[in-house]
Automatic annotation (TrEMBL):
Primary location class: nucleus
All copies of domain C3H1-type, residue ranges: 50-77
Domain WWE: 179-263, 281-362
Protein name: Novel protein
Domain of life: Eukaryota
Naturally occurring in which organism (per UniProt): Danio rerio (Zebrafish)
A GO CC term assigned to this protein in UniProt: nucleus
Ranges annotated as biased composition (Basic residues): 256-265
């Protein structure tokens, strides 16, 4: 797997804040709209039939990525309502005794990750692609996992898979523009899930020291597992808030203002060589297979800019590439007398005075 770039959200603060390659497929705002599309989990309600059966709406759209392992029933909802206009010609299941019965779903929901199609799965996670020939492991998927664990990262583009370059949308866990390819992340039952909310300028983790959050990630995860469509109420400085799992929003009860929340796994780095080895692997995975000289860029407010040794910047794209090829984990440079550090592992440039960050990429 060769990783080219990730997709992040634009920060609300000035030019040195986190910024990203957010097109129409990876846009996000801190408003009341599109709440249902921002969930990291499939927490939307399934269609309710007259018999109160939970029918998978993604199956009815032809988009369910779980297949036989889905917890909801794979049956035509229109058929159950006696309104399917396709009759026997319908491509969906018309069996009222759906094989996805409650008993079968309950049995499948108790399966451990080791009982999935990948018999060698040991955890703590595994990323796989399915191009129509069964699920195949993505090599070096810890790089994918590292990006997925960041709450502001919405997707990633990887190269040299069996299907070529693919863009993975973390928000809906799907492959963009290639409907015949599916992606999934398998997780150990021992995975530690962390919860974040989007502040005015960056993301904050619930329960972090120094933050006015009276609720811990572990508490939110417990409540989430009890009811993925439920909510939790909390009070901060006499102000009441409600955390809604279904829409993945934190709402100020008094003003109605909403903030985006996210659920992401705690990153578990591989135990095979430390930062130096990780940096080496990233170096070998960051570009598509091409003879073109790699170019280093940073993201401005609206678009990407190539590093040039002009206008007060002390390094060029070629300078950064030379350091990268030496397996350095970081490098320092200056811009108009401000000191910066470029972190190759996180693909960020950090202003040492303000601690603000920008995304960088190698293309």
């Amino acid at each position: 797997m060769n990783m080219a770039s990730n997709y992040q959200e634009d920060s609300a603060e000035g030019g040195d804040q986190l910024s990203g390659e957010s097109g129409s497929d990876f846009s996000d705002t801190d408003t009341d709209s599109d709440a249902s599309t921002d969930s990291d989990s499939d927490s939307e309600d399934a269609p309710q039939t007259p018999n109160k059966r939970n029918v998978c709406k993604y199956y009815n759209r032809g988009q369910c990525r779980y297949g036989e392992k889905c917890r909801d029933e794979h049956v035509c909802s229109n058929f159950l309502n006696n309104s399917c206009k396709y009759g026997t010609g319908c491509r969906l299941n018309h069996n009222r005794q759906s094989p996805s019965s409650a008993q079968d779903r309950q049995k499948r929901s108790r399966r451990s990750p080791a009982e999935t199609e990948d018999e060698e799965f040991e955890g703590p996670y595994r990323w796989q692609l399915n191009t129509g020939k069964g699920w195949k492991n993505i090599s070096n998927d810890h790089i994918l996992e590292a990006q997925y664990s960041l709450p502001n990262t919405k997707g990633i583009k990887i190269y040299n898979t069996s299907a070529g370059a693919v863009s993975i949308d973390f928000m809906k866990m799907r492959v963009l523009k290639k409907t015949n390819i599916k992606v999934r992340r398998m997780s150990s039952k021992d995975t530690e899930w962390l919860w974040y909310y989007r502040g005015n300028h960056c993301w904050y983790r619930y329960g972090d020291k120094g933050k006015s959050s009276p609720i811990q990630s572990s508490k939110l995860e417990t409540e989430f597992q009890k009811n993925r469509n439920g909510s939790v109420k909390l009070t901060i400085d006499s102000t009441q808030y409600e955390i809604c799992f279904k829409g993945m929003r934190q709402r100020n009860v008094s003003t109605g203002h909403k903030r985006t929340i996210r659920r992401r796994p705690k990153y578990e780095p591989p135990n095979d060589g430390g930062l130096h080895a990780l940096s080496s692997r990233i170096k070998n995975m960051m570009s598509p297979s091409t003879n073109k000289t790699p170019e280093w860029q940073f993201h401005g407010r609206d678009h990407w800019h190539t590093f040039k040794n002009t206008g007060g910047c002390s390094v060029s794209s070629a300078d950064i590439e030379r350091c990268f090829q030496k397996n350095q984990t970081t490098m320092n440079f200056t811009v108009n007398e401000d000191n910066y550090t470029l972190d190759f592992g996180r693909m960020r440039q950090i202003n040492q005075r303000t601690k603000a960050e920008r995304k960088v990429r190698r293309v």
